[in-house]
């Protein structure tokens, strides 16, 4: 592998380890509110959102593991695990697709 | 989005070099992780960079479409982030608009400067900044038209409760003053690193070199 690509990969590993820093930010991204938050903000849950919210349940909602507790350590561990899962699936999938379609 | 993905796949198939495959894999993974870095801004909201401009610049906009889309779809399916009903809109804004705006802003500002020119680092930073700002503006617009398109007979919004005069300024301001600066820094840093260590990895570089060689050999 190219040295530059290898070093970028090392940088990515560092980012994964630092990922729990992203948990420190409190508050939700604009437009990404949950139903409870919306109810607090505007006094009701829009009917369409309520209906659609049961359409899909993610296995690791909000990058957390259901049932491992609310502590910062547990949340950080789950967040790092999420990053690892994300990296492995993203990189793995594109590596396989890339190898199949690359010309030379 | 489906025709865009289809076309992007075809384009990528015709221009992807096997040497770039590890970088492509890394690009999607990087975008996934960078979006996990939530940054707080005054006013109690948070947001993040996307990393889509640098992917568009380094691997080309079509590779950016594929790489960022994979990251966004995985976010929605596995982690309930963004949401599956918003996949198409999210992919359009972050995986199509951003790599293309990023790539062309970078191209225009770089002009015919040498590949090692420091002007290109600045071009990359501006590309990151503008691409995220435009994507945020379009997202704000999409939010804002929701209550116009989808409301009950009594006028109660079914999905997004806020209208254009809230959503567009909110999305634009947050990004202009906050997240787009982060995107600019990330884009410039990664660009500067690749430029310094191995500029032949950059999109279009190889073919440009070949063309130059061909030109000089016929001259």
Question: How would you sum up this structure, described in words?
Answer:
The complex is a heterodimer of chains A (104) and B (219). Chain A has 104 residues and is mainly alpha-helical. Chain A is extended and about 55 Å long. Chain A is built from four helices and no strands. Chain A has a domain at 1-20 and 65-104. Chain A is 58% helix and 0% strand. Chain A has helices spanning 3-18, 35-42, 47-52, 72-101. By secondary structure, chain B is mostly helical. Chain B has one domain (2-205): Arp2/3 complex 21 kDa subunit ARPC3, CATH 1.10.1760.20. Helix content of chain B is 73%, strand content 3%. Chain B is built from eight helices and two strands. Chain B has helices at residues 2-15, 21-34, 52-59, 61-79, 87-110, 119-149, 164-198, 205-218; strands spanning 39-41, 45-47. Chain B has a two-stranded antiparallel ribbon. In chain B, helix 2 crosses helix 4, helix 3 (52-59) crosses helix 6 and helix 5 (87-110) packs antiparallel against helix 6. The mean pLDDT of chain B is 89. At the A-B interface, helix 1, helix 2, helix 3 and helix 4 of A face helix 1, helix 2, strand 2, helix 4 and helix 7 of B.
Helices and strands in order, then pairings?
The complex is a heterodimer of chains A (104) and B (219).
Chain A: H1 3-18, H2 35-42, H3 47-52, H4 72-101
Chain B: H1 2-15, H2 21-34, E1 39-41, E2 45-47, H3 52-59, H4 61-79, H5 87-110, H6 119-149, H7 164-198, H8 205-218
Helix pairs in contact in B: 1-4, 2-4, 3-4, 3-5, 3-6, 3-7, 4-5, 5-6, 6-7
β-strand number of chain A: 0
The succession of helices and strands of chain A, N to C, reads HHHH
Number of helices of chain A: 4
Per the principal axes of the C-alpha atoms, what is the gross shape of chain B? Answer: globular
Proportion of strand residues of chain A: under 5%
| Series of H and E elements of chain B | HHEEHHHHHH
- The chain-level structural class of chain B is mainly alpha
CATH architecture of chain B: Orthogonal Bundle
Low-confidence regions of chain A:
none
Oligomeric state as shown:
heterodimer
From the alpha-carbon coordinates, what is the Rg of chain A to the nearest angstrom? 18 Å
């Amino acid at each position: 592998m190219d040295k530059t690509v290898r070093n970028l990969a090392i940088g990515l590993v560092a980012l994964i380890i630092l990922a729990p820093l992203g948990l420190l930010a409190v508050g939700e991204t604009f437009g990404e509110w949950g139903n409870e938050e919306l109810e607090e903000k505007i006094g009701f849950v829009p009917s369409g959102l309520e209906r659609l919210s049961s359409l899909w349940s993610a296995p690791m909602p909000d990058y957390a593991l259901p049932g491992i507790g609310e502590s910062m350590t547990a949340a950080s561990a789950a967040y790092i695990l999420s990053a690892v899962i994300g990296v492995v699936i993203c990189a793995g999938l594109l590596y396989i697709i890339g190898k199949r379609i690359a010309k030379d | 989005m489906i025709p865009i993905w289809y076309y992007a796949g075809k384009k990528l198939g015709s221009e992807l070099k096997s040497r770039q495959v590890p970088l492509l894999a890394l690009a999607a993974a990087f975008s996934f992780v960078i979006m996990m870095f939530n940054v707080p801004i005054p006013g109690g909201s948070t947001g993040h960079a996307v990393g889509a401009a640098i992917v568009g610049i380094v691997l080309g906009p079509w590779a950016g479409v594929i790489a960022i889309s994979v990251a966004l779809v995985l976010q929605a399916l596995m982690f309930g982030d963004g949401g599956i009903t918003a996949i198409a809109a999210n992919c359009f804004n972050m995986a199509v608009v951003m790599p293309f705006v990023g790539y062309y802003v970078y191209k225009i500002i770089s002009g015919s400067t040498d590949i090692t020119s420091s002007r290109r680092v600045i071009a990359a930073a501006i590309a990151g900044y503008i691409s995220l700002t435009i994507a945020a503006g379009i997202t704000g617009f999409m939010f804002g038209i929701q209550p116009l398109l989808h409301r009950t007979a009594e006028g109660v919004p079914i999905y997004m409760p806020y209208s254009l005069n809230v959503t567009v300024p909110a999305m634009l301001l947050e990004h202009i003053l906050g997240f787009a600066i982060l995107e600019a820094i990330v884009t410039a840093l990664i660009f500067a690193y690749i430029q310094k260590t191995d500029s032949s990895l950059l999109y279009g570089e190889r073919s440009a070199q070949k063309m130059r060689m061909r030109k000089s050999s016929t001259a």
